[in-house]
Amino acid sequence: MGIYVNSKNAYALYKKEASKSYFVDKTALLKELFPLVEEGGHYLCLTRPRRFGKTVMANMIASFFSEAWNPDDIFQNLLIGRHQDYKKYIGKYTVVHIMFNDLPRECNSYKQYISRIERIIIKDLKKEYSNISIDEDSTIWDILLEIYAENQDVNIIFVLDEWDFIFHQDFVTKEHKTKYLLFLRNLLKDRPYVSLVYMTGILPIAKYSSGSELNMFAEFTMTNEQRFSEYFGFTDCEVDNLYERYIKSTATQMVTRNDLKIWYDGYYTKSGTRLYNPRSIVLSLSNNNTGNYWTSSGPYDEIFYYIENNVSDVRDDLALMVSDIPVPANIQEYAATAMNLQTKDEIFSAMVVYGFLTYKNGKVSIPNRELMGKFIDMLKKETSFGYVYRLAKESEKMLRATLSGDTDTMSKILEQAHDTEVPLLSYNNETELTAIVNLVYLAARDTYRIEREDKAGIGFVDFIFYPLKDKTADCIILELKVDQTPDIAIRQIKDKKYALKFNGKLAEKERYTGRILAVGISYDKQKKKHSCKVEVLK
User: Mind giving me the DSSP string for 266-284?
Assistant: First the structure.
């Protein structure tokens, strides 16, 4: 056993993963690889955002096929253990498992990085095939060709994790990137010893490989290919099962099933199946808390850099997305590669690749509350966002004024926004008015779950504010009107009995015990004036 060749590492890591309380069995992926391994010469590249289980799946594949250790103790009781060809494939192959995000000590050059990988593989091959004379000065592919010439039964499965890691390192130049692509090509392309290459990363190969270096790979992304989609991220059914475990094992539950949906749902496969962020789900249930578990570094911070420096292109669309309104976009997943983002579509494409935005039916949106918090923080901090920043800063004052019934301050804040000639405040349609109302209530998202067009009473309310934690806090029902009075808005709230939404089901304990406030906001197009009214319903 070596470090990269027939290593025990993947076995040890996946065994730990499979023993965890909130483990989800995704071993059905293996049965899709069986015919590919049998045929030989297949190349797969699966790209997903961070925290979608790429490394866990890579460890699963490497540990299952490797002859280094008997993995039957892990897999015999999992889904793949029932497959008719289970015994035919488990533990039968030489596996080269490279984790490309491992760096040498004090690494500051591409030569140090790639030399370490080459040195370890050659050392492992000498140990694994001690009966063959191996020249350490030869290339890895020459050594493997020599091994294959001696023993044509050698069929190697390559599991390459985080293949694009090196592209984000400061010491890597354009020339180094070209050399790295050539390294992968020479190692893998048209080699008789390759049975299967399974490669993972965040960024797709397209546009990295300008010529034919890696054109042997079939690429599977979250938005462009349906195959393999169910194995990355958690489905509704899987989260249901995890939540049942949580209920049984947690004495005092602080997380509801709906909390998980609001906080961590919102991604989609090519076919439209909804997916949850798996890492955040597991941490939320383990910690008994709906927190923000998104951590960003490196290229993720750079994405925000490009947003901030292209605000003229993206500012209005971000305002709409923060208002839960999807925005049309032409998504090209390769746009993230160069990190030289010039257009709005390139910026939004990169944000989809990195998981900041979700993409469905030709539109991008912010997937869930966890990511919404990141956007709101950015809007509150960055003065370069102009009117969006100003409205966000006023949102705390707007919430306080609403709760105290200070309609003069509410109207004043809206008038100030309008006087700045905000593009969205042309109010050409209800969507624009809705976006502005969302912006002036951004601070409310810290303490409220805000739903738009929610079913309530005998109709659909424009906005309804549900207290998140403190069930004794005031509840808010907000209705918008153009060229009508706020009194008409409040009359509609009463006539359609929107307040029933806070009462709960019959014989159910009252969920919210605070005041219920009816809020009417109107805009007179001719006078270009806003009017507000707040009335206590209970």
Answer: -EE-TT--EEB-HHHHHHH
